[in-house]
């Protein structure tokens, strides 16, 4: 794979990243290859996808669509799959993925993560200005969510149509899933629910317990029994 650090624009010689669609210095379109599995854009000389690691084969070709980029307001190209469509912006490299297709992509990465060595997930890009954007397929404003609760990738979600990923966010999400991020998030939610139940029980016991030693002892025994049952059920 070509190292992203040594990529240069053929027009002005400026530095490029593998997924860049245009040179940030002279704004000339950059020759690149799209992965047919995760739809990540790669440098033209790449042999394997920088997003999912698979060997690059025939590049899928997008169709014109009526969908509009939430960032650039430009028409998006549509890449139609059996389970849904990816809409891609050739200007800012953002991608809008319909829910059903996104579920398929995530399940594929979860399965791959169980049988293949995982790669380090890409790091976050730091704090960004919060902007609520319209859906690519409807005028509703999308909700911003930290994918998986712990990925550090904040995506824009339309509850009806799909999820918008800024440039390079979809590969980062797929890497997070492949490295067991969803499983860790699920365990964390279970632990938080468990702690909430324990705290609620403590509040209930404290509320009903009276000042008398007898009632306090009974409350303590009840709390101990409850916590023991929870621990056995985990």
SSE diagram, text form:
Blueprint: E1 32-34, E2 41-43, E3 63-68, E4 75-80, E5 85-88, E6 95-98, H1 99-115, E7 143-146, E8 154-158, E9 162-165, H2 169-178, H3 181-208, H4 213-233
Antiparallel strand pairs: 1-2, 3-4, 4-5, 5-6, 6-9, 7-8, 8-9
Helix pairs in contact: 1-2, 3-4
**Overall shape:** elongated
Low-confidence residue ranges: 1-5, 113-126
Total strands: the figure is 9
As a percent range, the share of helical residues equals 25-40%
End-to-end C-alpha gap:
45 Å
Domains counted in the coordinates: how many?
3
What count of helical segments does DSSP give? 4
- Computed Rg: 24 Å
What does this 3D model show about the protein?
The chain has helices spanning 99-115, 169-178, 181-208, 213-233, and strands at residues 32-34, 41-43, 63-68, 75-80, 85-88, 95-98, 143-146, 154-158, 162-165. It is an alpha+beta fold. The chain has 3 domains: 1-60, no CATH class; 62-179, no CATH class; 188-233. The strands form 2 sheets. A 7-stranded antiparallel beta sheet has the order 3-4-5-6-9-8-7. The protein is 32% helix and 17% strand.
Short summary:
The chain has helices at 99-115, 169-178, 181-208, 213-233, and strands spanning 32-34, 41-43, 63-68, 75-80, 85-88, 95-98, 143-146, 154-158, 162-165. It is of the alpha+beta class.
